[in-house]
Amino acid sequence: MVFRQKHLLGIEQLHPEEITALLDLADQYVDLNRRDVKHSEALRGLTQINMFFENSTRTQASFEIAGKRLGADVMNMAMQASSIKKGETLIDTAMTLNAMHPDLLVVRHPHSGAVDLLAQKVNCAVLNAGDGKHEHPTQALLDALTIRRSKGRLHRLNIAICGDVTHSRVARSNMILLGKMENRVRLVGPPTLMPSQVDQLGVEVYDDMAEGIKDADVVMMLRLQKERMDGGFIPSEREYYHRYGLDAEKLAHAKDDAIVMHPGPMNRGVEIDGELADDINRSVIQDQVEMGVAVRMAAMDLLARNLREARQNQPVEV
Amino acid sequence: MSLLFTNARLIDPENQTDTLGSLLVKDGKIIAVGDNIAAPEGAEVIDCQGHCLAPGIVDIGVKVCEPGERHKESYKTAGQAAAAGGITTMVTRPDTTPAIDNPETLEFVTRRANEAAPVNVVPMAALTKGRAGKEMTEIGFLQDAGAIAFTDGDNVVTDNKVFSRALTYARAMGALVIGHPQDPGLSKSAAVTSGKFASLRGLPGVSPMAERMGLDRDIAMIEMTGVKYHADQITTARALPALERAKANGFDITAGTSIHHLTLNELDVADYRTFFKVKPPLRSEDDRLAMIDAVKSGLIDTISSMHTPQDEESKRLPYEEAAAGAVALETLMPAAMRLVLNEQLTLPELFRALSLNPATRLGLDSGRLSEGAPADLVVFDPDAPFVLDRFKLKSKSKNTPFDGQKMQGKVVATYVAGAAVYRRD
Asked: Where is the Aspartate/ornithine carbamoyltransferase carbamoyl-P binding domain (chain A) (predicted)?
């Protein structure tokens, strides 16, 4: 057993061996998911609560399906509409939920660090489904699985992460994961959408798209997060598309067999050309969605194993 | 009533000396300092056992949460915390709810302070009504009621016309204005200093340049109006050359920094620890070291606690939402001792910034160990080690970044006008 985590809060806490172990298990779940009967008993008897403090359709559905396929009792809480509006603090919400004895808590929150905070206050396994601009570990893991299956390896690849890096938790988690697995990571985008001093974090930074994706094995596009922008970061969407939107012409600078990725949901015609996104020879965007379910199953399975083990080792009070 | 302190390490910030000797107090004032003072008849003799005796700390910028948020800190609890921390004068902030922006509120606060606090309390008042940056307060009346300086706290007056008029009027009244050098646009909604750490943690950051821009604006205003000005906190190396030039040009400008910016850096925030959220945010290690050098050289004049009480509820939130500020009345001295123990500052240099300079800037006659000065004194053991337990603090709020940390330097006793207001158990 190489996976030792109690929670999945970020890629930062994971050891490369743990990443490999998780991806290996996810491969098995990909096979399971392709069968007619897609069911396992790994989470039988456990309760999984999905708490989304921020709108999400895709990630929430993916976690829900993952839990159900593993036999967990899954409950979704739309936190935006609930007690948060009545002034209850995050900690109070966590304590209330904790009293209901959940086993797996899947949390998305608009503020960086909020999931860490919550994890300190509950005694179940917590999975970060995205916190502010900090991390989105399952997205990075599903991207890694997609790359590994497509390229046959997850090391010594040239990977360009392009677009709105500063608002992106996907970019941060990917940057850390791909770095840990010894790839060459480049960030490409206008300087207004680059986090400050990010070049000191072991990545190369480019503000020219052609230069940045030159000879890349993987071109990962990011969604322009208009909802997180509180001022003019770019002059206009059409100028952004012209300079940074991925189309066949720009992609020609990458390797001939380069794959195109996007975490979704896409702004077609803003960061990516619609036709390219649908090109099954280049785009692995649909594969990413499929891998998402498998990776989340693997993550919850591993955390549940550790949870059960920890509970068994606890002295029982008589 | 006379009081003779003997066998004391006299920390004299005026003469920059650290010598063994005695100090005689009569009727609340220091009447003799030297190495051979005979005890007058009936005098109480206090053997300091070789501990340090220094002028009590004059702390500019203490937030006491009266009126409005007494559950966070009252004059009684703040006063007791100050006494335990060797602070003999608290210069209080007007950023309460409502703001202290009229003579009536100021009189109320002064009455509360006199009833409840064992140390001297000198209040500051708001520069603009409601700290809203639109209309100046009744600066003259407020001065008559005892306001020692004028500040809108961390609300920057953004309208330069309003600011220049308030400063011009303040200059005519001879009033000291305390500014918060910060560009409000750049620092809007920032939780940490921008850079590698902010980028990794995904937190909204402010460039250190925002402080330099705020200071540059304020210096232009000083040149324009001739006002007497003190910057509440300079925390970045980038702002120092501008401060140095302004001083060289002969402007009436002084500057302070906070104890947290001298002893902690941005990495201390680590995994979103909200007790390390202060305003302005903690800076890089390079900035911290530059601030220490600036205190040593005298470019930065004062060190403050920037005591800002926050209850647990305001801190147990995601980092961006959590309130800024830290309590520091009791930790100011032991934290500052780190700089002495690391041989970055001498004790006389430290007390120049803690006691002498703030008193001088405010026109108080305390802050020194000279004949005729009020006997506001602190006796402390600079080496005594302890581990800080935040629940033992006398402040009502316990939001200190030093919880569980090893510290050195304990106050043995604190005297205000010759009367003991604190004695270590």
From this structure: 6-148
